[in-house]
Amino acid sequence: MRSPPAQVTLPSAGPAALLARLEFQREAAADGEALRFPLQLLGGHAAEDWLGGGGAEILPGGPGLQLRRSGDYLFGLLSVPAAQSVDMERAAFLAYGHLLRLLQERGYPHPLRIWNYFHEVTGGDGDDERYRRFCVGRHEAIAAPGFESRLPAATVIGTFVPGLQLGFLAGKRPGIPVENPRQVSAYHYPREYSPRAPSFARATLLDRLLLVSGTASVVGHATQHPYDAPAQLRETVDNIGALLAHARQQHFAEEPALRWQPRALRLYVRDAAQAAALQAQAEALLGGPLMVLHGEICRRDLEVEIEGVFEAISR
Question: Could you tell me the pTM of the whole model?
Answer without folding.
Answer: 0.97
